[in-house]
Amino acid sequence: MSGKQLVNIEINGKKYSAEVEPRLLLVDFIRDTAKLKGTHIGCDTTSCGACTILLDGKSIKSCTMFAVEADGSKISTVESLATDGKLNILQNAFWEHHALQCGYCTPGMLMSSTFLLSRNPDPTEEEIREGIAGNICRCTGYINIIKAVKDAALVMSAETGKEK
Amino acid sequence: MRPRPFDFYQPTSIKEASEILHSHEDAKPLAGGQSLIPMMKLRIFSPSEIMSLAKIKEMKPYISETGQILKIGAMATHDMIHRSDVLRNAVPVLSEAAGEIADQQIRNRGTIGGNIAHGDPSTNLSAALLALDAEIEVQGIEGTRIIPIDEFFLDLFTTALDHGEIITEFRVKASPHTKQKFMKVAKSDTAFPMAFVALNVGLSEGFVENARIALGVAGPTPLRALEAEKFLLKKRLDSEVITKAAQIATKDLEPPSDVHASEEYRKQLLSTLIKRGLSSFVG
To answer: Of B10, B38, B189, which has the smallest distance from its Cβ to A133's Cβ?
Structure first.
């Protein structure tokens, strides 16, 4: 079929529908159609991970998927992390540990780390390095990002302990 | 960078997909898109028609076990393959190779079917499947056929798939008692590989009963070191035999030279990886 296709995608709990060209990339749908500018375009060649989002709970690079392929799926972007302007535990740990300088890679780093912690609530340093291997940061040297993810894991496990 | 415009098809059955491919000569199947989409964005490749495999009901991703045969659906992602306990126990070389593909995001999206159909000599899974003597089930308008992996890769980006055929399943024999290893050298996780090997060696009281050695980025297709495999048969894996096998495996190779590694350096790396891998199976 040629021409535009109707696409329905739920982003951060809100439904978006639009007629789009099949060649529209998911990252462009997120940024230009849904107007959510938190997801960044860095290298645009599947290398840097600045465009990382969660698609049905799994981290992917949204510059390397067509929006039509995401029809019917649920997406989480970096905007889903904070609640009412209050940073979540992971974001707060990035703040505390100075895990960003220019901040361009941060949305992708946060989403990759969110996926890692969703699967592995107590990652080792090696597992954190592996988890963010698809995200490039040109400022921090990664050390503070790794510390932040480790610390976020500790805080999260302490909070889960408190709830029990 | 955005691809050229294309027409988009989204069939829901293999039959429908085969018919679309049969009547549209330029249509290209799209699985996870982790090789195809970057090429389209760079406009290295600009198909005028894309056919998504995502909604085909028979192609939902799966990994299953039927007796000694493990079946992997073509749409299984690298992440699924890497994390499958069944595969990790029965065919560890495949699990290891999948886990070393690029990064987490790409493993979450890329599929084994797309990876192999791409026909790239530098994909981890092609070497692992060669080492495991895999069978590839393909379906097209004429029906279903099985292609042994040894007959699948014809030339650079050229496979035995006819136009209109889609890979639907991979089958490998469970081989928990052979020694298996995947080893790769690359400058970073996401960088193009400099060299890699996949080894699958059956040992009986220290003597080699069977051996399959697959080499990555060693030529225009994924390759087996057939002469070295033959040399190893009935031999005890001591350091002299291992050194000789690595030398035989790499002596006639003509790997590509590029910014990642020169031909000569790739040969040395392949030889070293074979030596290290085989040595890890003894002592």
So the answer is: B189
